[in-house]
């Protein structure tokens, strides 16, 4: 069958690569794709009519949606009416990521373990809540903000400043919440669901901050690895009981058309795992390690979501550890340059994957075209092996002002 993948990042490159391994797959197109994804076609995913025309012209049977915005804009509702299989939740289900308030109310309603919170309706109330948490709290703007609407604060001063910043950025009448600051280790758990059952992929961690030791500004992600050494059976069982199962129960009860991904961003605290956020799509850069780690046929798993057989599917993983290092343009996530030629891509070993993100093809060259440029993914028997391998592969690739974090895969554990 022919397939369209919506999106343009490393996640979509990994999805196209993995789907292509399936004997059931024929042509795979990425809309709009990038300089590294074969069959990238420059069509705006928000132009549903143009996507539909492309699907008809190319006999597409399945659409897989990478990013959250087209889901929030209702792409699934649109194509479900057109009788094309589309992997990704409907607009109602996508609100689990699109609105922090909606997500928190859902968690509360279905008993999902999470941080305490308050919906803020006035500056006076904000000060009261900040006092209650003694300044240790997290402000979250309600809407989609590409990871930028969250302010983690450790003092009353910082929190009050964050209120001003949030209102300055999103407007005086912006909806937001303030929640309890949780301390612990973060873990990403990503599940594939047909709206009735769920299959979890291997646990992973991403590195969101720009600098080593998780310092500096937040980014879209500077690297990721899987599996996570501290994610033992006991922890995974509490995540399943306290977070995954109640969520699935809620999805069923609410009656969403949810054939897609539930991404659980979790903080493992001294009092057990707590859900920080839902995403309704694959994580980026987690996907770039999860799909090489997945042994099973991804297309078969996706298709089983459409014929109610997901619960019978076996999801198996390859042995070893997988590490993704992001090669970013110097200056990212602030100002950065585009248009530099990338060299050395042909030197990379065959057992290492290079998933493109911010690249375009020009006159036979691959040129930088975004902040996060490439994802280099290697594996090893141990996490240490995978880390040394991936950095030695990264050193073969170069472009002007290339920036990488040097400690991907290494992280002290806070909760023992
Ligand atoms: P979110 O978009 O809600 O996942 O927030 C982005 C990041 O902010 C998370 O990955 C955490 O690092 C941090 N964060 C969010 N909520 C909390 C919380 N309640 N306590 C501590 N850190 C948090
Ligand atoms: N890696 C975090 C995210 O995709 O939101």
Question: What would CATH call the homologous superfamily of the largest domain?
Answer: ATP-grasp fold, B domain
Q: Number of helical segments?
A: 12
Strands, total number? 22
> Which CATH class of the largest domain?
Alpha Beta
Class based on secondary structure composition and strand pairing = alpha+beta
Helix content: 25-40%
- Bound molecule types: adenosine monophosphate, glycine
Radius of gyration: 21 Å
What would the principal axes of the Cα set say about the shape?
globular
Give the number of domains: 4
Mean pLDDT: 96
Beta strand % = 25-35%
CATH topology of the largest domain: D-amino Acid Aminotransferase, Chain A, domain 1
Largest sheet: 6 strands, antiparallel
The separation of the N and C termini measures 47 Å
What can you tell me about this protein's structure?
By secondary structure, the chain is α+β, with helices and mostly antiparallel strands. It has 4 domains: 2-91, 3-Layer(aba) Sandwich (Rossmann fold), CATH 3.40.50; 116-180, ATP-grasp fold, A domain (Dna Ligase, domain 1, 2-Layer Sandwich); 185-312, ATP-grasp fold, B domain (D-amino Acid Aminotransferase, Chain A, domain 1, 2-Layer Sandwich); 321-403, Phosphoribosylglycinamide synthetase, C-terminal domain (Glycinamide Ribonucleotide Synthetase, Chain A, domain 4, Alpha-Beta Complex), CATH 3.90.600.10. 30% of the residues lie in helices and 27% in strands. It has 12 helices and 22 strands. It has helices at 10-20, 48-57, 69-72, 75-81, 91-98, 100-109, 123-132, 156-170, 233-254, 286-293, 298-304, 383-394; strands at residues 2-7, 28-32, 60-65, 85-87, 117-120, 137-141, 150-153, 176-180, 185-193, 198-200, 205-206, 209-211, 215-218, 223-226, 260-269, 272-279, 321-329, 353-356, 359-362, 365-368, 372-380, 402-403. The strands form 6 sheets. Strands 11, 14, 17, 18, 21 and 22 form a 6-stranded antiparallel sheet that branches. A 4-stranded parallel sheet has the order 2-1-3-4, with helices on both faces. A hairpin with a 2-residue loop joins strand 19 (359-362) and strand 20 (365-368). Helix 1 (10-20) packs parallel to helix 10 (286-293) and helix 5 packs across helix 6 (100-109). The longest helix is centred in the middle third of the chain and has 22 residues, at 233-254. The chain is globular. The structure holds adenosine monophosphate (AMP) and glycine (GLY). The site of adenosine monophosphate (AMP) has 14 residues, from strand 6, strand 7, strand 8, strand 15 and strand 16.
């Amino acid at each position: 069958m022919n397939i369209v993948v919506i999106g343009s990042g490393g996640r979509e490159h990994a999805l196209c690569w993995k789907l292509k391994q399936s004997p059931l797959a024929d042509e795979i197109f990425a809309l709009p794709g990038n300089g590294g994804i074969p069959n990238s076609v420059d069509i705006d995913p928000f132009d549903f009519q143009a996507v539909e025309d492309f699907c008809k012209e190319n006999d597409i049977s399945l659409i897989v949606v990478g990013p959250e915005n087209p889901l929030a804009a209702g792409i699934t509702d649109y194509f479900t009416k057109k009788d094309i299989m589309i992997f990704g939740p409907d607009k109602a289900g996508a609100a689990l990521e699109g609105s922090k308030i909606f997500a928190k109310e859902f968690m509360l309603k279905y008993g999902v373990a999470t941080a305490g919170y308050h919906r803020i309706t006035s500056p006076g109330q904000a000060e009261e809540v900040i006092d209650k948490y003694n300044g240790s709290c997290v402000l979250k703007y309600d809407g989609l903000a590409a990871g930028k609407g969250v302010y983690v604060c450790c003092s009353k001063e910082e929190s009050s400043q964050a209120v001003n910043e949030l209102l300055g950025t999103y407007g005086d009448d912006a909806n937001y919440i303030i929640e309890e600051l949780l301390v612990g280790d973060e873990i990403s758990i990503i599940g594939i669901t047909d709206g009735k059952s769920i299959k979890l992929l291997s646990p992973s961690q991403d590195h969101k901050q720009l600098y080593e030791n998780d310092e500096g500004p937040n980014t879209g992600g500077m690297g990721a690895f899987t599996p996570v050494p501290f994610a033992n059976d006991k922890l995974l069982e509490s995540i399943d009981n306290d977070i995954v199962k109640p969520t699935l129960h809620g999805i069923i009860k609410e009656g969403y058309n949810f054939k897609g991904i539930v991404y659980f961003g979790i903080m493992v605290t001294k009092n057990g795992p707590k859900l920080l956020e839902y995403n309704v799509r694959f994580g980026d850069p987690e996907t770039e390690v999860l799909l090489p780690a997945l042994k099973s046929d991804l297309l078969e798993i996706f298709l089983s979501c459409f014929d109610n057989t997901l619960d019978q599917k076996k999801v198996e993983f390859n042995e070893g550890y997988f590490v993704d290092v992001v090669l970013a343009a110097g200056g990212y996530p602030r100002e950065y340059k585009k248009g530099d030629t990338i060299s050395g891509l042909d030197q990379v070993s065959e057992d290492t994957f290079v998933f493109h993100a911010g690249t375009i093809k020009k006159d036979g060259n691959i040129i930088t075209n975004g902040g996060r440029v490439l994802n280099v993914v290697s594996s090893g028997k141990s996490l240490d092996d995978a880390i040394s391998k991936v950095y030695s592969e990264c050193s073969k690739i170069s472009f002007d002002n290339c920036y990488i974090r040097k400690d991907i895969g290494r992280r002290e554990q806070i909760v023992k």
